[in-house]
Design brief:
The complex is a heterodimer of chains A (230) and B (252).
Chain A lengths: L1 E10 L2 E10 L5 E5 L6 H8 L7 E4 L6 E4 L11 H6 L7 H10 L15 H14 L4 E5 L7 H18 L2 E6 L2 H7 L2 E5 L6 E6 L2 H5 L6 H15 L1
Parallel strand pairs in A: 3-7, 3-8, 5-6, 6-7
Antiparallel strand pairs in A: 1-2, 1-4, 8-9
Chain B lengths: L1 H30 L7 H11 L3 H34 L1 H16 L2 H12 L5 H24 L3 H9 L4 H39 L3 H11 L3 H33 L1
Classes of the chains: A alpha/beta (230), B mainly alpha (252).
The complex binds adenosine-5'-diphosphate (ADP) and magnesium ion.
Chain lengths: 230, 252
């Protein structure tokens, strides 16, 4: 299923996307890797309809999009719980409580964002992304401010949430391990104007056996990444 | 220590008022009570006034006009400033109106209001207050709207916030500080403007009463009325400050 169809996007004089096409399958997780400034955020913003393409089409086919921004973007004057409730069309108190527990933020549900650390805010933002009813979830470097242990836990939780929801996830990162742990498919992008250098499929059995069993793929990818960023 | 400073502050305030009254008394002795009535005489005038129903009626009438003119300015200025802040073409369209209201001297509005509305029931005074206050509401709300956090507004867009949620949780908390600053300036101008407008364009209200006092050379009355206007101005500025404190606590 095509989502970006021959899209061109330019900022002032900077060509970020040139005749870029990208297809995805429903219900899969895509890890998008690429050098800084290559246009990863731009791709997500186009899909979220925050930017218009100069040429080409974004083909959502009625699918609803949710977004975990690169920054937390919480309302400073609302509590954590209220920030989450705001994106729910119906009352979802039970679901919110469950998620707060999962994210280890239960004691902070009545706190204001300024009382939270960067990593906590990021987790609230991830929760909000999952709470908003959607078919496609966009996540832009969501684990930035998190320590390794919590990150590993979150990746597992996100994976199981995804399995129960069946949503499609586009996950932007610059961390190879993260990409491998979460993605069903890894997409490697070149510097701008960006193009897809390579797509790797990771099958479920590989993922279950953990990072140690993905060394050869990892080496391949490292080579391509190093090559791509030159 | 802090307690001492606070008590000290109050002491300075009292000393200041005391010195003011002394200077008032001395100048009254020097230039004569006909030109500068003494504080005692002024208080006597006030004491007489408060027994007169007309005194209270004039205050009520002026307050009514002031509040009405002010609220009409807020009522129209707030959505207009918001719309102008959101869209550049709307700003361009109303820009001449804004510049006109900002730069036309008050005396022009006084004369025009008088010519257009006559010296009847105070419509001229309400119009004059409205047109003096409205540019400050517009400019402040417009500025606040332009300063909206674009990252948060994008977030609202992505999560398809319904209009009601957007107004309550995105627009009002962000624009409120600018809006209240505009209201604060506007309320000050209201009480200065109301007497001036009534002096020329009305037969009732504080300004009209001051006009009569002027003709009769009742300087004590002029001072009493001025004191009433000061109280109105000070009272409304305190009221607005309260409002500001209550809501910024909520939204910060
Ligand atoms: N609003 C903008 N105006 C001008 N240039 C922009 C804008 N947004 C992004 N760019 C440029 O487009 C390129 C891609 O940006 P982005 O998609 O944010 O990259 P990434 O997320 O991969 O780091 C960068 O070179 C950036 O400087
Ligand atoms: Mg980015």
């Amino acid at each position: 299923m095509l989502i970006l169809n021959h899209v061109t996007k330019e900022y002032d004089d900077v060509m970020v996307l040139k005749d870029f096409s990208f297809s995805i399958e429903k219900g899969k997780i895509y890890s998008i890797l690429g050098p800084s400034g290559c246009g990863k955020t731009t791709i997500l913003r186009l899909i979220a309809e925050l930017e218009k393409p100069d040429k080409g089409q974004i083909e959502l086919r009625g699918q609803k999009v949710s977004y975990v921004f690169q920054e937390p973007r919480l309302l400073p004057w609302e509590t954590v719980r209220k920030n989450l409730e705001l994106v729910c069309p119906k009352k979802e108190s039970k679901k919110i409580e469950q998620l707060l527990e999962l994210m280890e933020l239960k004691e902070y549900s009545d706190a204001y964002p300024k009382e939270l650390s960067g990593g906590m805010k990021q987790r609230v933002s991830i929760m909000r992304g999952f709470l908003y009813p959607h078919d496609i979830l966009l996540m832009d470097e969501p684990f930035q401010a998190l320590d390794l242990k919590l990150k590993a836990k979150l990746i597992r939780e996100i994976y199981s949430l995804h399995q129960s929801m069946g949503n499609t996830i586009l996950f932007v990162t610059h961390d190879l391990d993260e990409a491998l742990l979460l993605g069903d498919e890894i997409i490697i992008l070149s510097p701008k104007p960006t193009s897809i250098v390579k797509r790797f499929t990771i099958d479920a059995s590989q993922k279950e056996r953990g990072l140690e069993n993905m060394q050869s793929i990892k080496e391949d990818m490292t080579k391509i990444l190093n090559h791509a960023s030159i | 220590m802090k307690d001492f400073i606070i008590r000290n502050k109050r002491a300075y305030l009292l000393i200041s008022i005391f010195i003011f009254i002394i200077i008032w008394q001395i100048s009254s002795v020097i230039v004569g009570p006909l030109i500068m009535p003494s504080p005692i005489e002024t208080i006597k005038t006030l004491a007489y006034f408060i027994t007169q129903p007309d005194f209270w009626k004039d205050i009520a009438i002026s307050m009514g006009r002031g509040v009405l003119g002010f609220f009409l300015a807020v009522l129209i200025g707030t959505p207009l400033g918001f719309w102008m802040g959101l869209r550049e073409e709307i700003e361009a369209f109303f820009y001449p109106f804004l510049v006109l209201t900002q730069t036309t001297p008050t005396v022009s509005w006084l004369i025009l209001g008088w010519l257009w509305f006559g010296t009847g029931d105070g419509a001229a005074a309400i119009f004059i207050i409205w047109i003096i206050v409205i540019p400050f509401i517009i400019v402040n709300v417009m500025e606040g709207t332009k300063q909206l956090d674009q990252q948060l507004m994008e977030m609202a867009k992505v999560f398809r916030m319904p209009l009601k949620k957007k107004i309550l949780h995105f627009y009002i908390p962000q624009i409120f500080p600018y809006w209240i600053a505009g209201c604060s300036i506007g309320s000050g101008l209201t009480w200065k403007g109301v007497a001036m407008a009534e002096l020329l364009t009305a037969r009732t209200g504080i300004g009209a009463a001051m006009g009569v006092a002027r003709i009769n050379l009742e300087i004590a009355q002029v001072i009493v009325w001025s004191g009433i206007l000061v109280l109105l101005g000070y009272g409304s500025s305190i009221l607005i400050k309260r409002l500001e404190v209550v809501f910024t606590k909520k939204w910060r």
